[in-house]
C-alpha cells in the first residue's frame, strides 16, 4: 500500500496549530491563569488617581483655611505698628499675594491645525514639532513681559510669583500643580506700550512669529483696561532635594 506524502499545505496547517498551542501555553504560564488582556489594572489606576485628586482637593482646602488664619493673625499683630503694616502690605503686593488691577496686555498662543501646510512659497512641509506651542515660546512671552516692566503676570488662571516655573510636557502646560492645554493666555498688568515693545523686540518671539506666518501658529495680542489679576493663593514654601537615608 502506498503512503500518500504530506502536502506542503498540510504541513503549514500543522505548524500553525502547533504555534497557536505554544502561544496559549506561554500566555497561561505568564498570567498564572488570570486574564492578561483585562483592563482591571487600568481601572484600578484610574480609581487611585481619582482618590488622590479628592485627597489633594481636601488638603488644599484645609491649607487655604490655615493660610487665611495666618494672614489674619499677621495683620492683627502688625496693626499695632502702622509702619510695619505698611511694609507688610508692600511686601505682599510685590510678592503677588494681593489682587492687582490696571491696564493690561493679553497674549494668546495657539497650536496650528494638525493638517497645516506651508502658507508662504518656498517653505518646507511642517514637522509635528513645528505646529505646537513649546515651553520656550511661553517662557519667552513671560520673560519679555517682565522685561517690559510688568507689575504682575498671570498665565491662564494662575498668578505668577518669584518661584513659579512655566514647564511643558509635550504641548501640555504644567503650572503650580495644574495641567493646561492650548490655547494659552498670558496677561500682564503694566504700561501697554512698553509691554508691546518688549514683545516685538524679543528674538525668541520673533522666531516664533516666523512660524506663525509660515504654518499658522496662533498669536494674538489684546489690550485691556482696568483688568484685575487674582492674588496668588498657593503655597509659598520652598521644596528642595535632600540626601537619601
TrEMBL record:
| Coiled-coil ranges (or none) | 49-76
Q: Does the keyword Cell division apply?
A: no
Pfam families tied to this protein: DUF881
Tell me where the transmembrane regions lie.
Answer: none
Record InterPro entries: DUF881
Question: Which UniProt key words apply to this protein?
Answer: Coiled coil
UniProt GO cellular component terms: plasma membrane
Name the domain of life: Bacteria
Indicate the family of this protein: Belongs to the UPF0749 family.
PANTHER family to which the protein is assigned, alphabetical: CONSERVED MEMBRANE PROTEIN-RELATED, UPF0749 PROTEIN RV1825
| Protein name as catalogued | Uncharacterized conserved protein YlxW, UPF0749 family
Originating species: Streptomyces harbinensis
Amino acid at each position: 500500500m502506498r503512503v500518500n506524502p504530506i502536502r506542503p499545505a498540510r504541513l503549514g496547517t500543522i505548524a500553525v496549530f502547533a504555534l497557536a498551542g505554544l502561544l496559549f501555553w506561554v500566555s497561561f504560564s505568564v498570567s498564572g491563569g488570570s486574564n492578561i488582556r483585562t483592563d482591571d489594572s487600568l481601572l484600578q489606576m484610574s480609581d487611585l488617581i481619582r482618590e488622590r485628586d479628592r485627597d489633594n482637593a481636601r488638603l488644599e482646602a484645609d491649607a487655604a483655611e490655615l493660610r487665611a488664619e495666618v494672614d489674619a493673625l499677621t495683620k492683627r499683630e502688625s496693626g499695632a505698628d502702622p509702619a510695619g503694616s505698611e511694609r507688610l502690605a508692600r511686601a505682599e503686593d510685590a510678592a503677588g499675594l494681593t489682587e492687582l488691577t490696571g491696564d493690561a496686555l493679553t497674549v494668546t498662543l495657539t497650536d496650528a491645525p494638525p493638517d497645516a501646510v506651508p502658507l508662504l512659497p518656498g517653505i518646507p512641509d511642517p514637522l509635528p514639532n513645528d505646529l505646537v506651542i513649546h515651553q520656550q515660546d511661553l517662557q519667552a512671552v513671560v520673560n519679555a513681559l517682565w522685561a517690559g516692566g510688568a507689575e504682575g503676570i498671570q498665565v491662564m488662571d494662575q498668578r505668577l510669583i518669584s518661584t513659579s516655573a512655566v514647564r511643558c510636557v509635550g504641548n501640555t502646560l504644567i503650572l503650580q500643580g495644574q495641567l493646561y492645554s492650548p490655547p494659552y493666555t498670558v496677561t500682564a498688568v503694566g504700561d501697554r506700550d512698553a509691554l508691546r515693545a518688549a514683545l516685538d523686540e524679543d528674538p525668541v518671539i520673533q522666531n516664533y512669529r516666523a512660524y506663525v506666518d509660515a504654518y499658522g501658529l496662533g498669536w494674538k495680542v489684546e489690550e485691556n483696561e482696568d483688568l484685575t489679576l487674582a492674588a496668588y493663593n498657593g503655597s509659598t514654601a520652598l521644596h528642595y532635594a535632600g540626601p537619601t537615608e
